[in-house]
Amino acid sequence: MLGSLDISQLLGDGDDASGLPSTGYSEEEGFTWVDTLRSVDCDSSDRKALCVEDRTATMVTAQVLTSQDTCVLKLRLSGNGHQLAFGIVDENPSGFSRLAIGDERLQSSIGAMCSPISGTIVYEGRTAGEAPAVKNGDIVEIRTSEGGRVEFLKGSSKFHSIKVGGKCKFRLAVTLFKQGQQVEILRGSGGGGSLPAGAAGALQVVGAGLPAVNGSYTATGTYNGKPMYKKEDGAILYWKNMWKLNDSDNTGGWWYERDDTSATGAWETAAGLGWVDPAPVVKAASGSPAEEDASIISPKSAAAVSTSVPVTAAAAPALPVEARRTNRWGDGLDAAASGHRDFFPKGWTPAKTVREAVEAFRVYSPEEIDFVLKKGCAMALDLKDVDMHMDDDCAAVIYAYTQEKPEPPSLYTKLNDAMRTSGGLAEKRLLLYLDYIHSLSEALSLLPAYSGECYRGLNLRLHPKTYEVGKTITWQQFTSTTKNQFVALNFLGRSGSKLHGSFFVLKVKSGKDIRDISAIPAEEEVLIKENSHWKVTSKAQSLDEKQKLCQKLAHYDLTEMDVYSLQQL
């Protein structure tokens, strides 16, 4: 099938579902994209869309799909060095234009948020699993099949699948973020098809995770007649090299997957690089099945398969956007202070504009500061649309704090180093930064308080006295935390599946959720204001304690990682 980008559907500056075109899907007509922000430009064939400015812009299909529709949308993506996303949204996606796929405010929205280095599955504001990196020119697919199965693929490898409800209606969607990003619709194969008779072995399953939105996956398998392991880890299943591409030794192999998220609990089989659902009987991948393979043909017996192969943890999603080069999540952990620090001299009053306050760090060119101020204006407008009111300068100050410079140092590293260091040049620099500290603190005060669990991490083990249980400590600088354990994981030490360093589980009382004003929203950052006080409530003593505190990381070897719990006072 060939999708289309009908330029007549570029509606203007609205950002909700009011007046959104709605038509049923038919293979003959392909797809028509809707972009209410006029943020893309189309080529003469109406098959390519080019993002023309830096802003979050989600395009959706005018075609509304149901659980009975079968289609393939094949896209060639060019992220221009940054993240982009593709997936599905609700039939009536109110506010969709300025919200990214997977945003918690975008109803029934799930997709793959991918950058050139890594990716993650995002579902209504939560990380739901892993996705591959997407580089310029990579081809991805969204496949739907009768019965409500939606699959995400890169090349020929499936990396995520979900089932939508029987009466659910949804649209396909793409989110672009940066000027120069491009999406091109390619011809899809159409239909889910079925396993051809006598299909020969070209099976491939690579190390990955299969997340379930509400439930769990169970899987078992064999390779070359030898039983392979299964591993369930909460809602994510991990495996490693179950099948090899172009396996031609005529030894049978099997792969079972149980999806308990659906009412039917259908079994699936990977075969011929395709998927059959349901598959009441599993067909041999190549040649005749070996005896060990034949013994697990019945789904009921699958649970008894040997777990003889060592479990190797799948790589956790690294930063799903521009990589941090400095450890924002461990910044200052090794410099816990014992008391409050007064930053402003008696009688001090702010005297600098926001531009001047940012200029003081000498990390931005005049053009870059123009960009920061422009982003502040756009973000303040976006916040207003969801009943959050913040002026342009306040949004720009927060945005500047979250930016990562291509070459260090970034603004936040210079700021926080000065805020927690006494004497010498740090004191002199601190005087230059006071206007920015004041502006950032005031801007954060405009946001509602966030309370909940957040995380920090550092790739070294700290002296036991630094965070002794019962001790009260102060982080004098602004403190970056994340709601996503995988984000903090990026700066722990790692040797294969073994993690080492220090991991902090924080009970936050008065944080500020700045994701909507962040240069890297997928980090799910909660920023803590200066001079935050904490009580060390525990240090995990056993592996079981560590796994309970770090449930998302429980499939790793945590024996060489210290895990602390802190309560904000």
Characterization of the model:
It comes from Effrenium voratum. One of its GO terms (cellular component) is extracellular region. One of its GO terms (molecular function) is NAD+ poly-ADP-ribosyltransferase activity. Belongs to the Arg-specific ADP-ribosyltransferase family. InterPro entries: ADP-ribosyltransferase_ARG, ART. The strands form five sheets. Strands 1, 2, 5, 6, 8, 9, 10, 11 and 15 form a nine-stranded mixed sheet that branches. 15% of the residues lie in helices and 31% in strands. The chain has three domains: 7-186, SPRY domain (Jelly Rolls, Sandwich), CATH 2.60.120; 208-304, no CATH class; 333-568, Toxin ADP-ribosyltransferase, Chain A, domain 1 (Alpha-Beta Complex), CATH 3.90.176.10. β13 and β14 (157-163) form a beta hairpin. Mean pLDDT is 70; it is low at 1-18 and 188-325. With 569 residues, the protein is α+β, with helices and mostly antiparallel strands. α3 (366-385) crosses α4 (392-402) and α4 (392-402) crosses α6 (424-445). It is built from eight helices and 32 strands. It has helices at residues 291-294, 354-359, 366-385, 392-402, 411-420, 424-445, 485-489, 543-549, and strands at residues 23-24, 33-34, 40-42, 48-51, 57-61, 63-66, 71-78, 84-90, 110-114, 119-123, 126-131, 138-145, 149-154, 157-163, 169-176, 182-186, 208-211, 217-223, 226-228, 232-233, 236-239, 254-259, 267-271, 274-276, 450-458, 472-475, 479-482, 493-495, 498-513, 525-528, 532-539, 557-568.
Structural features:
single chain; 569 residues; alpha+beta; Toxin ADP-ribosyltransferase, Chain A, domain 1; nine-stranded mixed β-sheet; 8 helices; glycosyltransferase; secreted; transferase; nucleotidyltransferase activity
